[in-house]
Amino acid sequence: MQLYPLKLVTVVGESVIMDDIAEQGIKLGASGYTISDVLGHGSRSARNVSVMGEVKTKKLEFVVAGELAVEILTYVSHEYFEHYAVIAWLSDVSVVRGEQYTHKSSH
Amino acid sequence: MQLYPLKLVTVVGESVIMDDIAEQGIKLGASGYTISDVLGHGSRSARNVSVMGEVKTKKLEFVVAGELAVEILTYVSHEYFEHYAVIAWLSDVSVVRGEQYTHKSSH
Amino acid sequence: MQLYPLKLVTVVGESVIMDDIAEQGIKLGASGYTISDVLGHGSRSARNVSVMGEVKTKKLEFVVAGELAVEILTYVSHEYFEHYAVIAWLSDVSVVRGEQYTHKSSH
Predict the structure, then answer these.
(1) Which residues of chain C have pLDDT under 50?
(2) What value of ipTM does the predicted structure carry?
(3) Cβ atoms B91, C91 nearer than 8 A
């Protein structure tokens, strides 16, 4: 079994912006993503909601090559960090049969 | 506090195959797993569903020793990669009081 | 774009203890957390429920500096490991614009 070193990009933020970020990730070359519901509580959220507390947010994840990971994070930070409650990070993963992730696809 | 280097195995795929993979992980020696609902969108999914778009999938996670992680990934790739929408990866984690994960248990 | 090396702390366990752990994480200095529903199955759970099988649990995540990560894990292990079904681990992440995480905040 061969394992490919790739990046897991995780974006957690307000639901309203997640569809756009997911779509942009695909446009940039990601072959897929997953999205799930989480409750979030944080100082970033606090700036944007009147009541401090847990708010419904989404977690969006891509498994992509390193260069593309940085492109997605750059998009998120440039487009959304100033006005939305969102955080984003990447981590190292080893993917089984990662051929489909190693090159940008032609979506 | 002692931390143990282990592997987080993540499998994302069609709901129909997840129970089997979870059960197989336990048979192989994992002491537990978690499973959650995610929406997935990907080129692998696209081969298996008629409508392109987000589909209900499951995310399955095990925290296990490195050798067992590879066994689980090998099982997933051999049994399911050809005909199902599924991706799988592993990452490094440091687990608190990991004794229960360091040896295969006798499930 | 600058990336900051931080830690992702993940705690998976019985719902009843998760609010306390989340609150304690904030008290210790975390700027936020996310919490989500997962089904769990594990040998630790088996000690606490009469029927072996999948049980509703929560996954709690913090992105914090390394020292704070250890403090949170220490709290979880000291307070809950003996009597509750809970596991906890940390992993390395690179966070975009991580200034808000690098110092303990004054919550």
Answers:
(1) 45-52, 98-99, 101-107
(2) 0.83
(3) yes
For B101, nearest residue in chain C (alpha carbons):
C43
C37 vs B32, B36, B105: nearest CB: B36
Q: Give residue A82's pLDDT.
A: 86
In sequence order, which residues have a C-beta less than 8 Å from that of residue B76 and are 6 or more positions away? A96, B11, B21, B86, B88
Contact residues on chain B for C54, CB-CB shorter than 8 A: 35
The pLDDT of residue A45 is 44
Phi-psi region of C104 (alpha: psi -120 to 50; beta: other; left: phi over 0): beta
Tokens of A43: 């100082």
Tokens, residue C48? 């606490």
Q: Find out whether C11 and C76 touch, Cβ atoms under 8 Å.
A: yes
C-alpha span between A93 and A22 (Å, rounded): 20
How many angstroms separate the CA atoms of B6 and A60, rounded?
A: 24
